[in-house]
Amino acid sequence: MSSFRINHVAMAVPDIDGFLDKSRPLYEGFTRGPIITNERQSVREQFLSDGNTTLELLEPIGDRSPLKSFLARQPHGGLIHLAFDVDALEPAIAVLSAAGGKLVTKPIPDIAFQERRIAFMLVAGQIIELIERANPPAVATANTGADPGTK
C-alpha cells in the first residue's frame, strides 16, 4: 500500500502576478519556482515555499481550464486541492476508491513533476491530487560469480 505524504497545498487565483503583488508581505520571503505553462491542464502554475510548506498557485489558461468554474464562484480564488506523494498511483487510487473516493482524472504525466504521473480524486468532498514518487533506484542483484564484464 502507498504511504501518503503531503506534497503541497494548491490555490486557484485569477492571475499569479496580480495575486503575488497584492499579497507581497505574505510571500516576499518565500522561494519561488519558475512559472510553468501546463497546456495539458490548461493552467499556469508556480510553486512557492517557506522551507517547510509548498504552495502551488494555479492560474487558468483559456476557457478549457478546469479552474474557470471555481473562479466563477470564487472570483478572488482560494484553496483548490491538497496534493499527496504516493509510491504508486494504482494502489493509492484503489485504497481511496474503497474508502468512497471517486477518480476525477485518470493518471497522466505532468510537466510540473518531471513527467511523473498524477491523478485527481474526490475524497470526502475534497479534491485530492496524487503524485507518483520517482522510481526508486534499481536493487543490485546478487553476485552470481559471473565476470562483471560479460552479459
Layout of secondary structure:
Elements: E1 5-12, H1 16-22, H2 24-27, E2 31-32, E3 36-38, E4 43-49, E5 54-60, H3 67-73, E6 78-86, H4 89-98, E7 102-109, E8 117-123, E9 126-132
Parallel strand pairs: 1-5, 6-9
Antiparallel strand pairs: 1-6, 2-4, 3-4, 4-5, 7-8, 8-9
CATH class: Alpha Beta
Radius of gyration, in Å, reads 19 Å
The multimeric state of the shown protein is: single chain
How many domains is the backbone divided into?
1
Fraction of residues in β-strands: 35-45%
Instruction: Assign an overall shape.
Output: globular
User: Remind me, CATH topology?
Assistant: 2,3-Dihydroxybiphenyl 1,2-Dioxygenase, domain 1
List low-confidence stretches: 136-151
Give the mean pLDDT. 89
Largest sheet: 9 strands, mixed
Number of strands: 9
What would you say the CATH architecture is? Roll
Class inferred from helices and paired strands: alpha+beta
CATH superfamily: 2,3-Dihydroxybiphenyl 1,2-Dioxygenase, domain 1
The helix content, as a percent range, equals 10-25%
- Termini separation comes to 35 Å
Describe this structure in words.
By secondary structure, the chain is an alpha+beta fold. The chain has a single domain (5-132), classed as 2,3-Dihydroxybiphenyl 1,2-Dioxygenase, domain 1. The chain has helices at 16-22, 24-27, 67-73, 89-98, and strands at residues 5-12, 31-32, 36-38, 43-49, 54-60, 78-86, 102-109, 117-123, 126-132. Strands 1, 2, 3, 4, 5, 6, 7, 8 and 9 form a nine-stranded mixed sheet that branches. It is globular and about 40 Å long. The model is unreliable at 136-151 (pLDDT under 50).
